[in-house]
Design a protein that fits this description.
The chain has helices spanning 15-23, 47-60, 86-96, 102-120, 124-133, 137-149, 152-179, 186-190, 196-215, 218-227, 231-242, 246-274, 279-303, and strands at 4-10, 30-32, 39-45, 66-70. It is of the alpha+beta class. It has two domains: 4-83, Alpha-Beta Plaits; 87-303, no CATH class. It has a four-stranded antiparallel beta sheet. Helix 1 (15-23) packs antiparallel against helix 2.
């Protein structure tokens, strides 16, 4: 497996800490030609150690420093094809879940149809089926991951995918509601207002979702998707709007937004712990998601 080249641009004040980050992992860093204010340190790092070294470096580097991770196109002796690090594998899995493909659109549409009939028939089995098949959890987790890494490209893709999915579900709920008139069922009533239990459940689900991606356990993600309601409140809001229950529709929309914000908050903090991000890096997105969840919950309580 091909080693990665990590190159650091720093100054003499942090040189010893930078060298220690490599040496503590049994690596042999080399200092290239540079001045006292502009030193360059580099080392070949096996893929299995890249994440640990980068985590150590993030703790010692200053904002003006520069760290570059390079994958050599060719090396002698030949070390074979480059292997992704666990962090790169995770990013690739999350990014694949943010593609606006035909499969993503079809799964969202079909899941929304199933959720609609589960709501109007008060059928929990259909609602569970819609939550399992809806592809809406991955974009939210990807948004949390991108926020923690300041990855603008991933943030943009995840935000667009999430907004598109929820928008499609809401619009289809409204359309089906216009075609199939009815009255509010028990399943619709319980999904028309956030409550403290929903907030705690969403925080737990966000933590479990992030951990399932970090550990690579897809079966755990299925349980998370069943535990937290994302698609049914979106469809419910559309149906309630079509049936002219605007207050209940607003409550369903707020439940969706509170759940999404709580998932983002918990996932951001989980990634910070799992990959040893500095909490300064994770604090801003986590605080933003927390304030959003608190504001939405307060708005609903004030309106109720």
């Amino acid at each position: 497996m091909a080693a990665r080249l990590i190159r650091i641009h720093t100054d003499s004040e942090r040189l010893s800490s930078v060298l220690a980050a490599f040496e503590d992992e049994g690596l042999d860093p080399r200092m290239l030609v540079g001045s006292k204010e502009a030193l360059i340190v580099e080392a070949l790092v096996p893929p299995a150690k890249v994440d640990r070294v980068l985590a150590r470096l993030r703790m010692v580097l200053a904002p003006g420093d520069l760290a570059v991770l390079l994958t050599p196109e060719w090396s002698y002796p030949d070390q074979g094809e480059a292997e992704r690090t666990p962090l790169e594998e995770l990013e690739a899995r999350l990014e694949s879940g943010t593609r606006l493909s035909r499969t993503y659109l079809l799964l969202t549409l079909l899941s929304a149809v199933v959720a609609f009939f589960g709501l109007v028939r008060d059928d929990p089995v259909l609602l569970v089926a819609s939550m399992i098949t809806a592809p809406l959890m991955t974009p939210l987790v990807a948004l949390a991951f991108g926020s923690s890494w300041r990855d603008v490209r991933l943030i943009r893709r995840a935000a667009v995918a999430a907004a598109f999915g929820f928008g499609v579900a809401l619009a289809l709920g409204w359309l089906l509601g216009r075609l199939v008139p009815g009255s509010i069922t028990g399943a619709m009533a319980v999904r028309s207002a956030p409550n403290p239990a929903d907030l705690v459940l969403a925080l737990s689900a966000g933590t479990m979702a992030a951990l399932s991606f970090v550990s690579g356990r897809a079966e755990a993600l299925i349980g998370v998707m069943v535990a937290i309601a994302l698609l049914p409140p979106a469809v419910n809001a559309g149906v309630l709007l079509a049936w002219r229950y605007p207050a209940a529709a607003l409550g369903a929309l707020l439940l969706l937004l509170v759940n999404a914000a709580a998932i983002l908050l918990a996932s951001s903090l989980t990634f910070a712990v799992a990959f040893r991000f500095s909490f300064r890096r994770a604090l801003l997105p986590a605080l933003a998601w927390f304030l959003l969840a608190a504001l939405l919950y307060w708005l609903r309580r004030a309106g109720g």
